[in-house]
């Protein structure tokens, strides 16, 4: 008899360790990743002849009653949610990157291979590097870190670069508000990331890889290191990967907590032991990246999508999604929301289906007023835009971005002028300081918004704010300053009354 209790940080924060300890006195407990239904954590699953049965949320004080009521047999109980796979939240998703998260023991190689792990790497090693790059290109995979740049083009550039050695770097500095998918994948299925990076290394001719993890993720760091040690022990990493003439070494590096290191060149600077500051481009990292050598830089979800692409073929991945947004995205529902967590589904689902359908509206029970998509530099969208499909092009046309897939919900008590001010304040605090539009513009932005809200010469200050936003967008070295105007402009466009501005006055 096996009972599954998550080891995910979110579940542990609400008592999962204590729940697991009490159940372990009676039967075998496996610490899996979270299924992503965070409002039900700790979620306990029991293996039965008919499949897993879920219970949740389970507190340590519930364990004795659950065991007495027949938990180990999957018996009915007030906390019983029925068969896990039939829970509507999970049943209607299309899990690709997260297919094994919550299902397996994250640091068990046998569990990983028993659920399809390494199929992608084995197939990749049977192909030439050029064929692997073509497969990734044909799949339509785009960077899930926010920019949406085609992964295959980046890999092809590194493959064609003449300089040696080459590197593969995973940016796991997940700093956007309302995002936690990278952490959950690293904690719940680290071998998927390891496999994806190894495939990338074979495809471009890299010999070393680095996973750059933010210091606020100690559980992810520990899980990754344990998984990497296990991978070396089994020949999945090292001098002869899967007994092929291919060597790849992988390391974890912990960042110092700077938001700007989510930007690829700042991350590379930090990896080199320098202060995290943006590099001017060109040269691009694909040609002169880590230590000046050709480097693939992708985020966790991008690299985590690669094993499925190689295992099932580019066409299977490309069949999911819409337009130029192919495959799935892992959307993260947070903020003032009744049912927060992970929703992995094909691009094309609407914003309203995520917030009202999966999320169940606000946790406070008040009406939704605004939703910010894409992190602290993403646009604020009103409920009138709930019909907007979640894909790169549709969002760009609406003056917004999908970004890393974070969806943060606000009810009707939110002050949107305050949210716009926060965007500028956040930029001022997190700017690396290298370029003037970002370093100085954000400080001036806070001051101008304060004057607008105070009613000081509102028309002139609104014009000044618009000019400042234009300057920051066009003149900043990276997306930190370049995207800060997006939440400000969207708040002004959709919620002008919060600034005391009429529709005619807004920029």
From TrEMBL:
Alphabetized PROSITE patterns for the sequence: COMPLEX1_51K_2 (PS00645)
Annotated SMART domains: NADH_4Fe-4S
Keywords: 4Fe-4S, Iron, Iron-sulfur, Metal-binding
InterPro entries in alphabetical order: NADH-UbQ_OxRdtase_51kDa_CS (IPR001949), Nuo51_FMN-bd (IPR011538), Nuo51_FMN-bd_sf (IPR037225), Nuop51_4Fe4S-bd (IPR019575), Nuop51_4Fe4S-bd_sf (IPR037207), Thioredoxin-like_sf (IPR036249)
MF (Gene Ontology): 4 iron, 4 sulfur cluster binding; FMN binding; metal ion binding; NADH dehydrogenase (ubiquinone) activity
Keyword Coiled coil: no
Short name of one Pfam family: Complex1_51K
Ranges for domain NADH-ubiquinone oxidoreductase 51kDa subunit iron-sulphur binding: 417-462
CDD domains: TRX_Fd_FDH_beta
Family: Belongs to the complex I 51 kDa subunit family.
Protein name (database record): Formate dehydrogenase iron-sulfur subunit
């Amino acid at each position: 008899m096996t009972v599954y209790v998550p080891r995910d940080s979110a579940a542990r924060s609400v008592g999962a360790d204590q729940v697991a300890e009490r159940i372990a006195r009676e039967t075998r407990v496996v610490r899996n990743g979270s299924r992503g239904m965070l409002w039900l954590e700790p979620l306990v699953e029991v293996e039965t002849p008919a499949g897993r049965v879920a219970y949740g949320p389970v507190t340590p004080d519930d364990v004795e009653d659950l065991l007495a009521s027949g938990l180990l047999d999957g018996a009915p109980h007030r906390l019983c949610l029925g068969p896990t796979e039939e829970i509507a939240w999970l049943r209607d998703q299309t899990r690709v990157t997260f297919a094994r998260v919550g299902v397996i023991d994250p640091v068990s190689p046998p569990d990983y291979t028993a659920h399809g792990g390494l199929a992608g790497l084995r197939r990749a090693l049977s192909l030439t590097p050029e064929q692997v790059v073509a497969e990734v290109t044909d799949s339509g995979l785009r960077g899930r870190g926010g920019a949406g740049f085609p992964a295959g083009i980046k890999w092809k550039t590194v493959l064609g670069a003449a300089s040696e050695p080459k590197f593969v770097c995973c940016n796991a500095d997940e700093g956007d508000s309302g995002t936690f998918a990278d952490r959950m994948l690293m904690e719940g299925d680290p071998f998927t990331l390891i496999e994806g990076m190894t495939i990338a290394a074979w495809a471009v001719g890299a010999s070393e890889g680095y996973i750059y993890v933010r210091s606020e993720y100690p559980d992810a760091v520990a899980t990754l290191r344990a998984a990497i040690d296990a991978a070396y022990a089994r020949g999945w990493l090292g001098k002869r990967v899967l007994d092929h003439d291919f060597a790849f070494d992988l390391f974890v590096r912990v960042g110092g907590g700077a938001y700007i290191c989510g930007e690829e060149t700042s991350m590379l600077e930090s990896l080199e032991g320098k202060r995290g500051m943006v590099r001017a481009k060109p040269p691009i990292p694909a040609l002169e990246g880590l230590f000046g050598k050709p480097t693939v830089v992708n985020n966790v979800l991008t690299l985590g999508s690669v094993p499925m692409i190689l295992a099932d073929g580019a066409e299977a991945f490309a069949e999911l999604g819409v337009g130029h947004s192919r495959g799935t995205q892992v959307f993260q529902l947070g903020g003032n929301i009744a049912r927060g967590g992970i929703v992995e589904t094909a691009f094309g689902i609407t914003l309203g289906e995520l917030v009202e359908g999966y999320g169940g509206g606000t946790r406070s029970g008040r009406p939704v007023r605004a939703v910010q998509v894409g992190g602290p530099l993403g646009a604020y969208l009103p409920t009138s835009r709930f019909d907007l499909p979640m894909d790169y092009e549709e969002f760009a046309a609406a003056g917004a971005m999908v970004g890393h897939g974070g969806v943060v919900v606000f009810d009707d008590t939110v002050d949107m002028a305050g949210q716009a001010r926060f965007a500028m304040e956040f930029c001022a605090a997190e700017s690396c300081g290298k370029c003037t539009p970002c370093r100085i513009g954000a400080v001036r932005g806070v001051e101008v918004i304060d004057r607008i809200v105070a009613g000081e010469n509102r028309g002139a200050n609104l014009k000044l704010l618009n000019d400042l936003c234009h300057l920051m967008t066009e003149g900043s070295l990276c997306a930190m300053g370049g995207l800060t105007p997006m939440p400000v402009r969207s708040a002004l466009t959709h919620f002008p009354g919060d600034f005391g501005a009429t529709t005619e006055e807004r920029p």
